[in-house]
């Protein structure tokens, strides 16, 4: 079994989901008492968030590259970053380490391609929705991404900062997300991608008239597959 190097704490609730999910899949495959070989290193999310809000991606890249090198030095066979938004700097990290990165968009693309889907609704942080690191990678597989309008993006940003990142999930916020999803479907989205590691605790399949793909479980599935290959 390969050793997974996980960069977590982005924020910590999603790291818990990754740790539990990977170990459950390994146990399902190998037997109840088996667990994954993994090394976990955690960031201070508050510091990274301040850099993100100040658009200091060079500092974010430096910090994550340092953690990735430490994981590689500790024996990780590949690296997983337990956060969608931070995948913006994955290309830079890959340049500085020898082991591969388990990329979250590759996991999503593997899930979508057999479905024959050509247009998805992408929900995520403002960076994930606007920057292109996610949508451009999907576009390589001829999958178009639709994103919410400016007002909906602002609501999502505030919900992430004040609620979801600290493990708070309210019916009121869920109702607004349901409306945002409906608007994306009206525009032609055939699938909704929950492109933020906190969204899966808020949004459920019944909140969307089309299939929902949560990036966390599909990323976990790819990591377990790589570890057991």
Report on the architecture of this protein.
Belongs to the aspartate/glutamate racemases family. By secondary structure, this protein is of the alpha/beta class. The chain contains ten helices and seven strands. Strand 1, helix 1 (12-30) and strand 2 form a beta-alpha-beta unit. Helix 1 (12-30) crosses helix 10 and helix 3 (57-73) packs across helix 4 (90-96).
SSE blueprint:
Layout: E1 4-8, H1 12-30, E2 38-42, H2 45-53, H3 57-73, E3 78-81, H4 90-96, H5 104-112, E4 119-124, H6 126-130, H7 135-139, E5 144-146, H8 150-162, H9 171-186, E6 191-195, E7 211-214, H10 215-228
Parallel strand pairs: 1-2, 1-3, 4-5, 4-6, 6-7
Number of helices: 10
Oligomer: single chain
CATH topology of the largest domain: Rossmann fold
Query: By helix and strand content, what is the structural category?
Result: alpha/beta
Question: How would a textbook summarize the main sheet?
Answer: 4 strands, parallel
Round the mean pLDDT to the nearest integer and report it.
95
CATH architecture of the largest domain: 3-Layer(aba) Sandwich
Question: How is this structure best summarized?
Answer:
GO terms for molecular function: amino-acid racemase activity. With about 230 residues, the protein is an alpha/beta fold.
Key features?
229 residues; three-stranded parallel sheet; 14% strand
């Amino acid at each position: 079994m390969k050793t997974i190097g996980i960069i977590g704490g982005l924020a910590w609730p999603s790291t818990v989901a990754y740790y539990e999910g990977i170990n459950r899949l390994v146990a399902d495959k190998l037997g109840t008492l088996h667990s994954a070989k993994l090394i976990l290193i955690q960031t201070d999310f508050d510091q990274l968030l301040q850099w993100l809000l100040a658009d200091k991606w060079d500092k974010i890249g430096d910090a994550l590259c340092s953690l990735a090198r430490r994981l590689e030095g500790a024996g990780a066979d590949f690296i997983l970053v337990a956060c969608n938004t931070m995948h913006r700097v994955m290309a830079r990290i890959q340049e500085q380490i020898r082991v591969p990165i388990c990329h979250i968009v590759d996991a999503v693309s593997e899930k979508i391609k057999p479905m024959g889907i050509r247009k998805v609704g992408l929900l995520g942080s403002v960076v994930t929705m606007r920057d292109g690191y996610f949508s451009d990678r999907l576009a390589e597989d001829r999958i178009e991404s639709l994103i919410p309008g400016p007002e909906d993006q602002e609501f999502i940003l505030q919900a992430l900062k004040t609620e979801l990142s600290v493990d708070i999930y309210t019916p009121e916020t869920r109702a607004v997300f349901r409306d945002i999803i409906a608007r994306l479907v009206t525009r032609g989205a055939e699938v909704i991608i929950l492109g933020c590691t906190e969204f899966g605790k808020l949004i459920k399949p019944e909140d969307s008239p089309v299939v929902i793909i949560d990036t966390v479980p599909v990323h976990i599935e790819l990591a377990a597959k790589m570890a057991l290959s």
